[in-house]
Amino acid sequence: MSLLSKAQRPDAQGRIQQVTPESASWRYVGFEAYQLKQGQTIQLESGDKELCLVLIAGLASVKTRHAEFPDIGKRMSPFERTPPYSVYVPHHDKVEVRADSDLELAVCSAPGSGNLPARLITPADVGVEKRGKGRNKRLVHNILPDDRPADSLLVVEVYTDEGDTSSYPSHKHDQENSETETYLEETYYHRFDPEQGFALQRVYTDDRSLDECMAVYNHDVVTVPRGYHPVATIAGYDNYYLNVMAGPVRLWKFSWEKDHSWVNSEAYPRK
How far apart are CA 116 and CA 90, in angstroms? Predict the structure, then answer.
């Protein structure tokens, strides 16, 4: 089974990506992406899942059973590099999304079981940090980290400049009942500036029983069921990706691949 989900032409609802636990052969993470025209409305039901709706680009009004969030959104492209507006939706809720401009919308999902209310996540609520050094630098927007309320979901977006690496040094989070790792399935939704760009993403395990390298283009999704998963951008093209993670424990703990962990040390960049 391929770990790469290629972007599709918008269906009647405007959906261009759909990853389910069934299609990914895993247990927790679901992901959809929509391209909506101004004035278009879609209806969603969370069922036994919690949702995080991320406005990748554009303006919207969102209504749930018990809450309304009109006229949200600010950035018209993810490459403005400002944090997005998002809406958290609990399980067994209904959602209406109206596109107040052309809208690129991500719908992140994972099992929901608590009693959290629907809430708006504003740009001011998003933690912004810079990670790495040398050719391994990136800008991170923590939309729904493990210190913010949710049942299962972890959501973050990452910017990597042309020619740089990210999700690196290679790391993994695929062990249950471990003191050093948590089991977290993960999706990567990729965007590029300019749009014809691409990146290379590798997903591999220590024993190489899984070892797949993919050329990833605009609006493609990579699924990471286990193993390491670094991303290398190509000269001339900046990369954005939205990560969705979930597992049995809502905590991000990971292990570095020993061969490459030195990139975190004072020895890098080499003089």
Answer: 6
- Residue 193's identity, in one-letter code, is D
- φ, ψ for residue 246 (rounded to 5)? -165, 155
Average pLDDT, the chain: 97
Rounded CA separation 72/53 (Å)? 12
Indicate the helix (H) or strand (E) that contains 64. Answer: strand 60-64
C-beta separation of 241 from 191 below 8 A: yes
Question: From CA 113, how far away is CA 198, in angstroms rounded?
Answer: 38
Scan for tokens 């992406």, then name that residue.
33
CA distances from 84 to 33, 38, 93, 165, 257 (A): 15, 18, 22, 23, 32
List pLDDT tens digits, range 31-54: 999 999 999 999 999 999 999 999
Q: Is the previous residue joined to 269 through a cis bond, with omega within 30 degrees of 0? A: yes
As given in the structure block, the two tokens for residue 15 are 């959906």
Q: In Å, how far are 117, 135, 159, 235 from 269, measured between CA atoms?
A: 46, 8, 20, 19
The number of residues in the chain equals 271
- First-to-last C-alpha distance (Å) of the chain: 42
Q: 154, 252 in Cβ contact below 8 A?
A: yes
Q: Is 115 exposed, middle or buried (0-12, 13-18, 19+ CB in 10 A)?
A: exposed
Q: Which CATH superfamily, name and number, covers 4-264?
A: Jelly Rolls (2.60.120.10)
Express each pLDDT in 81-93 by its tens digit.
Answer: 999 999 999 999 9
Does pLDDT of 270 surpass 90? no
CA 82 – CA 74 distance, rounded (Å): 9
pLDDT digits (tens, 9 = 90+) for 216-227: 999 999 999 999
Backbone φ and ψ for 128, nearest 5 degrees, come out as -110, 130
Residue with tokens 């990210």: 166
